[in-house]
Design a protein that fits this description.
Length: about 400
């Protein structure tokens, strides 16, 4: 798409996030279509980008929501996702969160420990409700991704092992307040290899078969999220192969598939746009300093993540530099040792693949206001979250005497 960044920067000021809603539609549709041989629900992982307009756009397409806090559940509801398409996951849900989820009667609570299952039972009993339970299985499979975003190994805090899961399903079956409804497995994020997915789904499908043999019939298989995207030159899993692998492993089982993609849907739909403030040279190291910073997009600082960078309408006199922001930390960089052209103050810089875990991981560090978020759809732009003001930043602080 041809985007007039200059016009957008004049209209909204920098820095800002720009989301291409047509790309979101295309990504959602591709994945949904891949599963067309079965009943499926694409439950968008709200944590990746929780702007209400993004969730609403996906909800209009038919998506559900995978949430990890009651705040995310409320966002999903506010954006129009029906309760019967909302899932609540997470290793540490509080009593208040569990109660609210039960009262709202969402589709599934993904339970991640025996202790949590006991708690859900007690709370459901106190409310005279029956909780629909899905248990998150940890298949102990190495997803071959960044260690911070690997979740399917026993050394990670997520889910329970197969034997524990089986005992938990039996408990559900024998409880008046728990209904064994689904099974869940998510081994990690930014996955680019199919084999670990195949292995883990097979392990989970075997458990479903064992449960069936003891008359515990589940209705949903939640295969998690994690499909990778291209940041640089990654070879991706083809969505058709992905879906086929899952369908193959479920042969003979009558389950609705739930898939929880976040990054795949929004990652490459988002661009972070920032502007050059200054250039400087320390010794012989060149720095390009922009108005965006690590508090706006923390992935490079936190994971050493690569995000492609472009200086708009300028590719003369390339030379090595670090692209950095104004925050008082040496970790405040978007890219290190990259070739960029000689810039002028005011030049626009676009940082790609920023739609997932960009804005949602942003902070007010250094008392910096969170940036604006803009949607572009059919060539038309609109503001979907305004830039914060100084007053917004101090609004919750109690006046000191
Ligand atoms: N389902 C569960 C249970 C998850 O824990 C996650 C992500 C997803 C679905 C969605 O994963 P996705 O499809 O987006 O890969 N902040 C990190 C990513 C953390 C992912 C946490 N869980 C990053 O910036 O790379």
């Amino acid at each position: 798409m041809n985007i007039d960044f200059k016009k957008l920067a004049d209209k909204y000021q920098t820095p800002f996030y720009l989301y291409d809603f047509d790309h979101i539609t295309a990504q959602y549709t591709e994945l949904k279509e891949s599963f067309r041989a079965r009943k499926s629900l694409i439950a968008y992982a709200v944590k990746a980008n929780s702007n209400l307009s993004v969730i609403k756009h996906l909800s209009n397409l038919g998506a559900g929501a995978d949430c990890v806090s009651i705040g995310e559940v409320k966002r999903a509801l506010k954006a129009g996702v029906p309760t019967y398409k909302i899932i609540f996951s997470g290793v540490g849900k509080s009593d208040e969160e569990i109660k609210e989820a039960l009262i709202l009667d969402i589709l599934l609570i993904n339970v991640e420990s025996s202790a949590e299952l006991d708690r859900v039972e007690e709370l459901a009993k106190s409310l005279n409700k029956v909780a629909r339970i899905s248990i998150r299985v940890n298949p102990n499979i190495d997803p071959k991704t960044h260690p911070y975003i690997s979740t399917g190994l026993h050394e990670n805090k997520f889910g329970v092992d197969i034997d524990t899961a089986k005992r938990m399903y039996i408990k559900c079956k024998n409880s008046e307040h728990l209904e064994p409804t689904g099974i869940h497995c998510h081994i990690g994020s930014q996955l680019t290899q199919l084999e670990p997915i195949r292995e883990s789904i097979n392990i989970v499908a075997n458990l479903v078969r064992n449960l069936k043999a003891i008359k515990i019939e589940l209705s949903f298989m939640d295969v998690g999220g994690g499909l990778g995207i291209v940041y640089k030159d990654e070879t991706l899993i083809n969505t058709y192969d992905y879906a086929q692998t899952i369908l193959d492993s479920l042969f003979g089982l009558d389950l609705t598939i739930i898939c929880e993609p976040g990054r795949f849907i929004v990652g490459n739909s988002g661009i972070f746009v920032t502007k050059v403030l200054y250039e400087k040279i320390n010794g012989n190291k060149r720095f390009v300093i922009v108005d965006g910073a690590m508090n706006d997009l923390i992935r490079p600082a936190l994971y050493d993540a690569y995000h492609r960078v472009e200086v708009l309408n300028n590719n003369k006199n390339l030379s090595d530099c670090n692209l950095v922001g104004p925050v008082c930390e040496s970790g405040d960089f978007f890219a290190k040792n990259i070739d960029l052209p000689e810039t002028q103050s005011g030049d626009l810089i676009t940082i790609y693949s920023a739609g997932a875990y960009g804005f949602t991981m942003s902070s007010n560090y250094n008392t910096r206001a969170r940036v604006a978020e803009i949607a572009i759809e059919n060539g038309n732009d609109r503001l979907i979250r305004k830039r914060e003001s100084f007053e917004d930043l101090i609004a919750n602080e109690i006046e000191f005497l």
